[in-house]
Design brief:
It holds the Pfam family Ldh_1_C. The protein is α/β, with parallel strands linked by helices. The protein has helices at about 20-30, 45-55, 100-110, 130-140, 150-165, 200-205, 210-235, 240-250, 295-315, and strands spanning about 10-15, 35-40, 65-70, 80, 120-125, 145-150, 175, 175-180, 185, 195, 195-200, 255-265, 270-285, 285-290. The two termini are about 35 Å apart. The structure holds 1,4-dihydronicotinamide adenine dinucleotide and pyruvic acid.
Length: about 325
């Protein structure tokens, strides 16, 4: 399965040209990751404006053709990114968005599906784990071809906070959040490392204070980070745009990577019929495999609780 490569035309559709969709289009362009980017949104005039604005960058800094389009442009896309949907307001949780954004996703999938011929579908809209579940069921594609950005953004925040605490560059920190992109997220402290050295051992080595109090402070900050940013500026979009670029590179350039993204479980960790994030191998077919890692017992327990919580949420749909 991992060797099932095909030549990608690097055509990307982004459905939802709001802050997140436009930031993704901009980031993909300056990273030169796509040959063609089509923005699709119910607000046609705004979408044309976003596409023109991105197209007018210095040519040497971006080679994509960026334009506003329609659902017919989803034909032959290598990657379709869904960002349509409302953002949470101050004080709301991501799960408060279910009814509204699920209806929007239904509309989007209903309009996109007749034109879908191939390619991976990446969900960004919230609540991402719930919407990945619905889109997976509605599209009926092989497992992993629909996936959500899930906990990649949380893991990026986690990595940043550990790097800040240890005064190191983020590149040497390896740290992952799994579970829900939401309150039931789980930091996998048992496997967090600095250049391959377990985090606790590293801190002892360099004489940095370490223990439950510091772990809790960092975990709480990561869980609240989305809300903290929303309190400040009303939304988040730059962080997720770079995460999407990273994942798009794996799909479009067949650059296999491992990241904690959300897909439909099929018995891994004894869990099925629910979408959550675990470190997964990502390539041209989306999620090729969910890795089953050896976490600490309390991390497994928290993960199983996250799955139970998500199953209860799915029953309300
Ligand atoms: N997964 C993650 O880590 C993150 C997810 N998000 C989520 O991304 C979503 C988008 O956020 P923003 O771009 O800030 O919101 P926004 O309000 O700026 O943009 C949403 C866009 O969706 C469009 N839209 C609404 N209904 C549509 C439909 N039926 N068909 C096509 N387009 C439609 C709107 O016209 C609008 O342009 C939200 O659900 C937000 O919570 C945001 C940041 C991080
Ligand atoms: C909006 C959101 O889901 C986040 O920034 O985490």
């Amino acid at each position: 399965m991992l060797n099932n490569f095909s030549v990608s035309e690097r055509k990307v559709a982004i459905i939802g040209a709001g802050f997140v969709g436009a930031s993704i289009a901009y980031a993909l362009t300056i990273r030169k990751l796509a040959r063609e980017i089509v923005l699709i949104d119910i607000h046609e005039e705004k979408t044309i404006g976003e596409a023109l604005d991105i197209q007018h960058g210095i040519p040497d800094m971006g080679i994509s053709s960026v334009r506003a389009g329609t659902y017919a442009d989803c034909k032959d896309c290598d990657l379709i990114i869904i960002t349509a949907g409302r953002n949470r307001k101050r004080g709301e949780s991501r799960l408060d968005l279910i009814a509204g954004n699920s209806a929007i996703l239904k509309d989007v999938v209903g309009q996109m599906k007749p034109y879908y011929t191939k390619g991976v579908i990446m969900i960004v809209s919230n609540p991402v784990d719930v919407l990945v579940y619905q889109c997976t069921k509605w599209m009926g594609l092989p497992n992993g071809m629909v996936f959500g950005t899930g906990c990649i953004l949380d893991s990026s925040r986690f990595t940043r906070l550990i790097a800040d605490y240890t005064h190191l560059n983020t590149e040497v920190v390896k740290a992952t959040i799994v579970g829900e992109h939401g309150d039931a997220q789980i930091p996998i402290w048992s496997r967090a490392s600095i250049a391959g050295v377990p985090l606790q051992e590293y801190c002892e080595n360099v004489g940095l204070k370490w223990g439950e109090e510091i772990r809790k402070e960092i975990s709480d900050k990561v869980r609240e980070m989305g809300a903290t940013i929303i309190k400040g500026k009303g939304r988040t979009h730059y962080g997720i745009a770079t995460c999407v670029c990273y994942l798009a590179e794996a799909v479009l350039n067949q650059r296999l990577t491992i990241a904690p993204v959300s897909t439909m479980f099929q018995g891994e960790y004894g869990i099925e019929d629910v979408c959550l994030s675990v470190p997964s191998i990502i390539g041209v077919n989306g999620v090729e495999k969910r890795l089953e890692e050896r976490w600490a017992e309390e991390e497994f327990q928290a993960f199983r609780q996250a799955a139970d919580k998500m199953k209860k949420v799915l029953k309300t749909l």
